[in-house]
Design brief:
The protein contains 16 helices and no strands. By secondary structure, the chain is an all-alpha fold.
Length: 415
């Protein structure tokens, strides 16, 4: 029988080998190796401004420049410039998330899970961004750093990492607050008390760094008029939308359908017969989301009308055929039923689904990337499943990631 250390070693050999191959394929590609994709132009421009001694904010950049500072500092000893070196530096910062995920998982669950770490690496909505000049992968690195400090109950350091995360990609900080909420609920449960001002006051002695972070983020939002720094016409503040929730739920079904197929029947039984259970409540919420999508899914952002992206093609399909929206609802119903059968280590961890919702609602533009933090946290908190389910999930992630990555290299789709 293969020992656990050998499984871990094999997992890292696969991750490192695939990463090196993908870095080479992207940067040596005849067209992609010398041409920027979409927002890469703004990220490269910001980093090159830093390298030239101009530390002003690039006006077209929607995020604060934490990612760009990271690459700039990493490149100082090397002194290299140009798209390919910057992409490679970004890949190093982003791929650090894989190793942090492994550390966080074994800290949370008490043992390593090589296959889950591989699933995180192959997560289809994250995988292509490891190799492009985008903020998303590095934002997950910093989020997992905050999660590690949180797991170690180093709350000042966790909130500090949350502040750094806000400087990298503002909306992702929502999940640092979800971690703080889990800590509060665990504190209440551990002391066998109900939530009250007195309990909140005692928890404040350990949770004050998160409250300080919340005040800072809220202040930025109010003063800036939203989270986006540049291109505010396309990313206005104060938006409340349902489209990303619908799209994320449908996409989640596509990613974890091997789990859904084997579990939605038990979820239906739970929904019909287990009155008052937490799973039943979650199931009903999922069904409501599904049928709301039939009536309210109507992306109107100008960027979602552009051709050439996979998600925009899906949106056009869903709105162009008579039963398109029904095909949105059915997978979401099945997904919600199946999720009632995927149990967390603690009931307090179910607030992750609340974080998933609130992290998607404040966006007008529908983007798969907006679901990356929620999916990464979900993979971290879900305990090990049976071997068959884990294997099927890994194979599905690998197949979808290879399709997306190959399509990107061939120039026929953009993730």
């Amino acid at each position: 029988m293969t020992s656990e250390p050998k499984n871990i070693s094999r997992q890292y050999i696969i991750i490192i080998a695939v990463s090196i191959l993908c870095i080479l394929l992207v940067n040596l590609h005849p067209w992609l190796g010398s041409n920027m994709i979409a927002d890469e132009i703004y990220h490269q421009r910001q980093i090159e401004m830093f390298q030239e001694g101009d530390f002003a904010q690039q006006p077209d950049l929607t995020t604060l420049p934490g990612y760009h500072w990271g690459i700039y500092l990493l490149m100082i000893p090397i002194g290299a410039t140009g798209l390919n070196p910057l992409r490679i530096a970004g890949s190093l910062l982003g791929l650090a998330a894989v190793f942090l995920f492994d550390i966080c998982y074994r800290t949370l669950h008490g043992s390593p899970h090589p296959q889950r770490t591989l699933q995180f690496f192959l997560l289809p909505i994250l995988f292509p961004w490891f190799f492009l000049l985008y903020t998303d992968a590095f934002a997950i690195t910093v989020l997992l750093l905050a999660a590690y400090f949180w797991l170690r109950e180093r709350h000042v350091w966790a909130a500090g990492a949350g502040a750094a995360l806000f400087y990298v990609r503002q909306p992702v900080v929502v999940f640092v607050f979800i971690l703080a909420l889990i800590d509060l609920l665990e504190y209440v449960r551990a002391n066998r008390q109900t939530l009250s001002l007195n309990v909140l006051g005692r928890w404040f002695l350990r949770g004050w760094p998160y409250l300080l972070l919340l005040v800072g983020c809220a202040g930025f939002f109010l003063i800036n008029g939203g989270f986006a720094v540049g291109d505010t016409d396309s990313h206005p503040g104060g938006v409340v939308g349902w489209d990303n929730v619908t799209f994320s739920a449908w996409m989640t079904f596509l990613f974890i359908w091997p789990l859904v197929i084997g579990r939605f029947g038990d979820g239906l039984q739970l929904l019909l017969h287990k009155h008052g259970s937490l799973g039943r409540i979650l199931g009903f919420i999922g069904v409501v989301i599904a049928f709301a999508s039939v009536f309210f899914f109507d992306p109107t952002h100008p960027y979602n009308a552009l051709a050439g992206t996979l998600h925009n093609g899906f949106i056009l399909w869903a709105n162009s055929i008579g039963f398109g929206r029904l095909w949105l609802a059915i997978p979401i119903v099945l997904l919600s039923l199946a999720l009632t059968q995927i149990h967390f280590k603690s009931t307090t961890h179910y607030v992750i689904y609340f974080g998933w919702l609130i992290s998607l609602i404040p966006f007008w533009l529908v983007e798969p990337r907006y679901s990356i933090p929620a999916f990464a946290v979900w993979l971290l908190f879900v305990p090990p499943l049976d071997d068959l389910a884990e294997s099927r999930l890994s194979l599905n992630f690998a197949a979808l990631s290879m399709i997306l990555f190959s399509g990107m290299l061939l120039g026929v789709l953009f993730p």
